[in-house]
Design a protein that fits this description.
Blueprint lengths: L6 E12 L6 H7 L13 E5 L4 E5 L4 E7 L2 H17 L9 E12 L3 E2 L1 H7 L3 E2 L8 E5 L4 E5 L4 E7 L2 H17 L3 E2 L3
Length: 187
């Protein structure tokens, strides 16, 4: 049983979407001068939204990648809003985009100190090279995520495909650290 409830914050959701058609990026730049497009540097066009605050990469293949959303719902809203904006300004979009969550990135605080030196010996699938990086890298099998674990009790969780997996993974890592006597809470 967890001594403390960890605080978890979703910091970024990366979602992909497919329009299943080719897109004329030069046409988008003409209609949206604020769009960023330098094909000699990067093949995608960057379409930024203020609300939700996201950046969506649009490729000529009709594939899109949305970053910056703080929830799965917000990621889907952003992709929908971008496609509606394109349609509204005369860019032909034949079908509704199919949105797939690729990565949920979150930060968490467990509220205790973690003994990173011992984490390496007591847990499997851990990398810790303090002269290279101040945190341990822990690969959790279920749910399949990767944690950066810092001695101050802070975590970064990457690789989740759903928000609920993040919460479940943080609860799991806290339970594991407590069972192994690797986390110390202030009195």
């Amino acid at each position: 049983m967890a001594v403390r409830k960890p605080s978890v914050k979703i910091v970024n959701i990366v979602a992909s979407a497919a329009l299943n058609q080719r897109i004329n990026l030069k046409q988008i730049v003409q209609k949206f001068p604020q769009a960023e497009y330098s094909p000699h540097v990067f093949p995608g066009l960057v379409f930024r939204l203020k609300k939700p605050k996201t950046a969506t990469l649009i490729f000529e293949t009709g594939k899109m990648v949305c970053t910056g959303a703080k929830s799965e719902k917000e990621a889907a809203q952003a992709v929908t809003k971008v496609t509606k904006e394109l349609k509204k300004h005369g860019i032909p979009i034949a079908s509704k985009p199919v949105v797939t969550i690729q990565n949920v990135v979150a930060s968490a605080e467990l509220g205790g100190e973690i003994d990173l030196e011992s984490v390496v010996y007591k847990l499997k699938r851990v990398m810790y090279e303090p002269e290279q990086f101040p945190g341990a890298v822990y690969r959790m099998a279920d749910p399949k995520v990767v944690f950066l674990i810092f001695s101050a009790g802070k975590l970064v969780c990457v690789g989740a495909k759903r928000e609920e997996d993040v919460y479940s993974a943080v609860d799991n890592i806290q339970r594991i650290l407590e069972e192994q006597g690797l986390i110390f809470y202030p009195k």
